[in-house]
Design brief:
Helices cover 36% and strands 17% of the residues. With 219 residues, it is an alpha/beta fold. Strand 3 and strand 4 (54-55) form a beta hairpin. The protein is globular, with a radius of gyration of 15 Å.
């Protein structure tokens, strides 16, 4: 199984959630998957000091920051070809809702960053599974607007309502659970959308990766 992972920076307040990204990489490795990380070659929407949670007057590259998580083994997202992979995966973190789309500010009117949109729609059109963690299901809902994709972000009613306004179908799940849409071939899990321990988050990600593998085998 070859999986393309899309990162959105480094740090849960303005990029990829690091625990989720690393746990996803670990779960995929345990499943015997080959992975390649990608990120859009764009500027972050904002930069946040993770010690104070205050915004800072800096500009950072989504690709360069994502390379921190990928240990430098990362490619620009605009070169991603769905034909080269069996599945597409997104960890969460606010970067998914700021840098890969603008859901954090626009809600149900969110627009998806062009390279990210092409990736999601390309994998979906090829019937290749997509995995989304934490807030990343909002990104998938925006990219596949109106297709009735079954997704979960846990039990946040406000975010769930925004997903449904984009034409998705939200299904509540606990942190250690995942949601599978076998028709649209999408797997999602709440991860840190819920107040949980890293062990509980890991259980949910492991479950989602297992289901992703099942969908890949059905391709």
């Amino acid at each position: 199984m070859k999986v393309a992972i899309v990162l959105s920076g480094c740090g849960f307040l303005d990029g990829s959630e690091i625990h989720e990204a690393v746990l996803l990489l670990l779960a995929l490795d345990r499943a015997g998957a080959q992975v390649q990380c990608h990120a859009p070659d764009t500027r972050q929407r904002d930069v946040v000091d993770h010690a104070t949670r205050a915004g800072v007057a800096e500009q950072r590259s989504v690709l360069a920051e994502s390379a921190r998580i990928a240990r430098g083994r990362i490619l620009p997202l605009d070169g991603l070809d769905p034909a080269d992979f069996d599945a597409l995966a997104f960890p969460g973190g606010y970067g998914a809702a700021k840098n890969l789309c603008d859901f954090a500010s626009a809600g149900a009117d969110a627009r998806v960053e062009p390279a990210t949109l092409r990736a999601i729609q390309g994998f979906h059109a090829a019937r290749k599974p997509i995995l989304a963690l934490c807030i990343a299901p909002a990104l998938v809902a925006a990219a596949l607007r109106g297709k009735g994709v079954r997704l979960t972000i846990g039990d946040d009613r406000g975010v769930a309502a925004a997903l449904e306004a984009m034409g998705a179908r939200h299904e509540p799940r606990k942190v250690h659970e995942c949601c599978v849409d076998p028709e649209q071939r999408v797997v999602s899990a709440p991860a840190y959308m819920q107040d949980a321990s890293i062990l509980e988050v890991a259980r949910g990600i492991d479950s989602a990766v297992f289901e992703l593998g099942r969908l890949v085998k059905q391709t």
